[in-house]
Specification:
It is a single chain. By secondary structure, the chain is of the alpha+beta class. It has helices at 52-66, 84-97; strands spanning 2-14, 28-40, 106-114, 117-124. Strands 1-2-3-4 form a four-stranded antiparallel β-sheet, covered by helices on one side. The protein is elongated and about 50 Å long. It starts with a strand and ends with a strand.
Length: 128
């Protein structure tokens, strides 16, 4: 299995309005390092998993939709607690919407909150 990973970062604000989250219940900022990894069993006719430039551009489009925004104000997250895991899932699905995902078996998105904590969402893709 081959994979290619690209990354970007985004600064967002949000709150986690549940007592479970302690002080993070209030509005706060976070800078996520966002890593997207595409997986496929064989390389394409050019000998690559995905064009790194195209992958980087698409990731930048998706992170750009969220960058410097308060996630609490976005309709897409209405009624949703925007944990790191939830945001990783959102990014994965938005990435998949903008690219032909036919050749890939999975797309994995990791959001790193800091060097010692991160969350990953793996979107398994059906192959015909």
């Amino acid at each position: 299995m081959f994979s290619v990973t690209v990354r970007d970062h985004m600064m967002v604000a949000h709150s986690l309005p549940d007592p479970f989250f302690g002080p993070a219940q209030g509005l706060h900022g976070v800078t996520y390092v966002v890593e997207a990894t595409w997986f496929r069993p064989e390389l394409d006719e050019h000998g690559v998993v995905i064009d790194i430039g195209a992958a980087t551009e698409r990731l930048g489009e998706v992170t750009g939709e969220l960058r410097y925004r308060n996630l609490d104000d976005l309709e897409v997250f209405a009624g949703v607690v925007t944990t790191t895991e939830v945001v990783a899932r959102h990014v994965a699905h938005r990435l998949a919407e903008g690219l032909d995902m036919t050749p890939y078996t999975a797309l994995e998105v990791t959001l790193r909150e800091h060097p010692d904590a991160w969350a990953t969402y793996r979107l398994e893709l059906a192959r015909s």
